Automatic annotation (TrEMBL):
Keywords from the named record: Methyltransferase, S-adenosyl-L-methionine, Transferase
The protein's name in its UniProt record: 2-polyprenyl-3-methyl-5-hydroxy-6-metoxy-1,4-benzoquinol methylase
Any GO BP annotation: methylation
Organism annotation: Kosakonia oryzendophytica
Alphabetical list of Pfam families matching this protein: Methyltransf_25
Gene3D superfamilies: Vaccinia Virus protein VP39 (3.40.50.150)
Ranges in coiled-coil conformation: none
Key word Methyltransferase present: yes
Molecular-function GO term, any one: methyltransferase activity
Lineage: Bacteria, Pseudomonadati, Pseudomonadota, Gammaproteobacteria, Enterobacterales
Domain Methyltransferase: residue ranges: 51-147
InterPro entries: Methyltransf_25 (IPR041698), SAM-dependent_MTases_sf (IPR029063)
Keyword Ribonucleoprotein among record annotations: no
Length: 222
């Protein structure tokens, strides 16, 4: 069973609000502030536009914010439990959303260029090695002309000693149980990756944490 499916089954069974567990209020507060900043800076498409959240989880983060703002929301996640949970959450709140179980590296079931905005629901930093290039390919294929991509990612080296013991600075990869778990690129290298993929960075917001930093980057294709 996929590790993310295991985690979501446990979270769902224990009645947690989302992936972040007890940290959900803080995560929601930071997300709301970041998206409101983008909205006020006119960096989001108009309500009613189609948006896609990569790694939508149970729909309680970006998908929920955009749905409440009047957008047409779609979300994909590799965990079937997360997707069923997202559908339940939206139904309970009277919201509309199209949620599908899918691998963000392979989204062939979705047509080309339908989304005015694609939001990374803290998913890209879960991809390592060739997975990142595959995901970038899909993002560019699915993003509408003049559409925006919002990257929400861990960045920089881990600060806690336990994490540092499992971090390979040569690869910029954090390991878990001996397997690649997270990509933790320094911010300059993350910006370089974005530029090399053919995007222009329009906005950057860094949140400093005791464990590692988290950056929100709003980009548009050249």
């Amino acid at each position: 069973m996929d590790i993310y499916e295991q985690i979501y089954q446990r979270l769902y069974a224990s009645g947690e609000p989302a992936w972040t567990g007890s940290g959900y209020p803080r995560a929601w507060h930071n997300l709301h502030e970041n998206l409101t900043t983008l909205k006020d800076a006119a960096l989001l498409p108009a309500p009613g536009s189609r948006i896609l959240e990569l790694g939508c989880g149970n729909g309680s983060m970006a998908s929920l914010w955009f749905a409440r703002e009047g957008y047409q929301v779609s979300g994909v996640d590799i965990s079937p439990t997360a997707i069923r949970w997202a559908q339940e959450n939206f139904f309970r709140q009277g919201l509309c959303g199209d949620f599908q179980t899918a691998d963000v590296c392979h989204l062939n079931q979705l047509p080309e260029h339908p989304f005015a905005l694609i939001f990374d629901g803290s998913c890209m930093h879960c991809l390592t090695g060739k997975q990142r290039e595959q995901a970038w390919h899909e993002i560019k294929r699915l993003l509408a002309v003049d559409g925006h991509f919002v990257l929400s990612s861990m960045c920089g080296e881990p600060r806690k000693e336990e994490d540092r013991r499992h971090y390979n600075p040569a690869e910029y990869v954090l390991y878990r149980d001996g397997q690649p778990w997270r990509t933790l690129l320094p911010l300059p290298l993350l910006r370089q990756e974005i530029l090399e993929q053919g995007f222009i960075i329009q906005h950057q917001q860094v949140t400093n944490n005791p464990w590692w930093d988290h950056v929100t980057l709003c980009v548009v294709a050249r």
